[in-house]
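We now fix the convention by which a protein and its fold are recorded. The integers have meaning only within a learned vocabulary of local backbone shapes. A record is reproduced here so that you can trace the correspondence yourselves:
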Amino acid sequence: MGLFDFFKKDKESQQQQQALDEGLQKTKTSFFDQLSKAVAGRNTVDEAVLDDLETLLVHADVGIDTTVKVIERIEKRVARDKYVSTADLDRILREEIVALLDANSSATGSRAILDRPDSPGSPFVIMVVGVNGVGKTTTIGKLAHRFHSAGKKVVLGAADTFRAAAVDQLIIWGERVGVPVISHGMNTDPAAVAYDAVQKGVEMGADVVIIDTAGRLHNKVNLMNELSKIKRVMQKVIPDAPHEVLLVLDGSTGQNAYLQAQEFTKATDVSALAITKLDGTAKGGVVIGISAQLQVPVRYIGVGEKMTDLGRGLSPPAVERNR
């Protein structure tokens, strides 16, 4: 079991799990090849080995603060167990990283939709946020496919009204998946789109409503404030909406993704993360760093463009553990 083997494919067929493994191959191969070289010829996990491991974690975009946490946890285990060999390092490293991620994991939220009875009274509302180009709309399409395939009624809201391409792309995804998309077209009020999408979800007894929002530049406070407006308008229909704010980040951008995450968590109540494009980077450690530092669970990872190219994170609800 490697550094990212705790992520699982949407439907765990052998072929699909292989696709996820291949998508993460750059990160796994790069990291563990370097780790093997760093410990070659050494028998014990000493200070020099830990220094090399620290360097590898930083280079993998895990981040300084999270790297320090991981090293400290390993140091405690080495001190406690006394005779830890370099052959044990892979297993110990994996266990400590899983422990960090698991501490921020939760079975509630978008992954728990599959545990909900059909039409429990009002739909579960997910507001998806993130800057342009990170794969927001594609992630929404994958989620819609995931829930629709599980027999859930899904409604999409095209509230990214500043880009015609974003509206059109979501409509195409809706057609591909077979779910309705509420759209007012380009240059319309995104809050009004969100309101109508939630209202439609209530009327048709939907299980989940997913709202796309415009690609906010994380340094534009006025645009960030619009997210609050969208939330207030949705709450006129469902008082506790949105039930999840899913921040989508591009894993290939490394520490820039972490900076975006920091700004978004200041601007809105981000409750979960989706990290995309991990098939295009050898530095997938950003997944670990962002989750650990912001204490927000990583719900999903994206490793391709197909509808099924969606891996899920730790601690799934019971219905997903048995899938």
Observations:
- Residues 64-81 form the longest helix (18 residues).
